TrEMBL record:
Keywords: Ubl conjugation pathway
Species classification: Eukaryota, Viridiplantae, Streptophyta, Embryophyta, Tracheophyta
Protein name, UniProt field: F-box/kelch-repeat protein At3g61590
PANTHER family with a match to the protein in the record: F-BOX FAMILY PROTEIN, F-BOX ONLY PROTEIN 31
Pathway: Protein modification; protein ubiquitination
InterPro entries in the cross-refs: Beta-prop_At3g26010-like, F-box-like_dom_sf, F-box_dom, FBXO31/39, Gal_Oxase/kelch_b-propeller, Kelch-typ_b-propeller
Organism: Gossypium hirsutum (Upland cotton)
Domain of life: Eukaryota
């Protein structure tokens, strides 16, 4: 099928498109203008060839490894991984689940505009909680919410974490992951929320933090919120944990959401002092870290019916104020067909992906160019009316392991 490539099959059929220009060149000799073919591969030292290969898209690097033994040894070496980590970052990919029961699907490469069939390690069903950062992805089960794995979806290296503290069967949980680009150490946070028995307005909320250096969990905060509950949306951005909370009936419909900021260093409380209102009535909000800036993609509700979506906006948090940086054009909004009030959206670097749960259409927004663009069509079709699609964004990296 057009646009679909098996990630596991190490083929080199289209290497000429990606790296053929590095392979050889021809020149005319002085005697008789006879043409001589010189192989660049034979004259380039390993360190220079490593630098050249490190600038390729990651899918091309895997194909390069199947060209010959020398190239395979180069792209597998520690020195190559060091070079790879110091070149310009790869564009983030988007993995789309194509089954409601099995964790199978396709990953979209925005550079080559191709979908790859890849297998995700560790995860058992698509409804698990998922968070990603700098090449790593964290999965948490949706039942007991006590089974966690951190993995690199490209290399398939995976690590199971010890069970987090706190309530096992929380009503709501929000998972986030932050990886240091220098040390590759990572922090995981889980925000758990459970209704106080017999009291609809009060909710127990706790924050649990995992440090990969100590390989230990710590309960950072426990608090009772009145009129608000936690949800399933959070992100760690520049050392600050952000998560959305939701009104339990107090206040106007326009203020159904609010943002909590929690500094992981100072760990201030109570949380209610740090609330930041969202920009107008939202049907849902999706938080993401784009180069150290907190970005929210939100469904814009109608003024008289805030539960009905009329558009999608993108905002960046500047201090305690939201700055709108994008509004989805109506033709793209219509392109989703029937769009529910909630949708999937995630991003990193300068790309934001937006996807409807009801169809495999994927829209990409480039923050630098302020450009909206549909991805190449995913090689899957909707088989029955209630089939749902979801997904997540991740950076394809070779050098980072959990």
């Amino acid at each position: 099928m057009e646009g679909e490539t098996s990630w596991n099959s190490h083929c080199a059929d289209d290497m000429s498109k990606d790296i053929g220009e590095f392979d050889s060149f021809s020149e005319l000799s002085d005697e008789g203008n006879k043409e001589t073919i010189i192989s660049v591969d034979s004259i380039l030292p390993d360190d220079l060839l490593e630098r050249i290969l490190a600038y390729l898209p990651i899918a091309s690097i895997f194909r390069a490894g199947s060209v010959c033994r020398r190239w395979h040894e180069i792209v597998s070496s520690k020195r190559f991984l060091w070079n790879f980590s110091h070149v310009l970052s790869q564009k983030p990919w988007y993995f789309m689940f194509t089954s409601s029961d099995e964790p199978v699907g396709y990953a979209y490469d925005p550079i080559l505009r191709k979908w790859y069939s890849i297998e995700l390690p560790c995860i058992q069903t698509p409804n698990w909680f998922i968070a990603s950062s700098c090449g790593l992805v964290c999965f948490m089960d949706n039942d007991s919410r006590s089974e966690l794995h951190v993995c690199n979806p490209i290399t398939k290296i995976c690590k199971k974490l010890q069970e987090p503290p706190g309530m096992k069967f929380s009503d709501y949980s929000a998972l986030s992951l932050s990886v240091s680009r220098t040390s590759h150490n990572y922090t995981i946070s889980i925000v758990k929320s459970k209704q106080v028995p017999g009291n609809f307005l009060q909710w127990d909320l706790s924050i649990h933090i995992y440090d990969s250096e100590t390989m230990m969990w710590a309960t950072s905060l426990t608090e009772v919120l009145t009129g608000w509950r936690g949800g399933d949306e959070s992100v760690i951005c520049d050392g600050v944990l952000y998560f959305l909370i939701y009104s339990t009936g107090v206040g106007t419909p326009e203020n159904r959401h609010s943002l909590v900021t929690y500094n992981l260093s100072s760990r201030s409380s109570p949380l209610i002092r740090s609330l930041i209102p969202v920009p107008g009535p939202l049907t849902c909000g999706r938080l993401m870290d784009l180069k150290g800036k907190l970005v929210m993609v939100g469904g814009i509700g109608k003024p008289d019916r805030p539960d009905i979506i009329k558009g999608i906006g993108i905002w960046v948090l500047n201090g305690r104020n939201w700055v709108e940086v994008g509004r989805m054009p109506h033709k793209f909004f219509q392109g989703f067909g029937e769009l529910d009030d909630v949708f999937a959206s995630s991003g990193t670097d300068n790309l934001i992906y937006i996807q409807s749960y009801g169809a495999p259409a994927l829209l990409v927004f480039d923050m630098n160019q302020k450009l909206w663009k549909w991805s190449l069509k995913c090689p899957v079709s909707k088989k029955f009316p209630l089939q749902l699609f979801t997904g997540f964004c991740f950076e394809p990296r070779l050098e980072i392991a959990p």
